[in-house]
Amino acid sequence: MKQIQVTDHYKVVEVEFTAGHSMPRHVATSDALLIVESGKALLIFEKETVELSEGSTQPIPANEEHMLKIIDDFKGYIVMGNESKINFSKPGQQVVN
Question: Helices then strands (H, E): number in the chain?
Answer without folding.
Answer: 0, 8
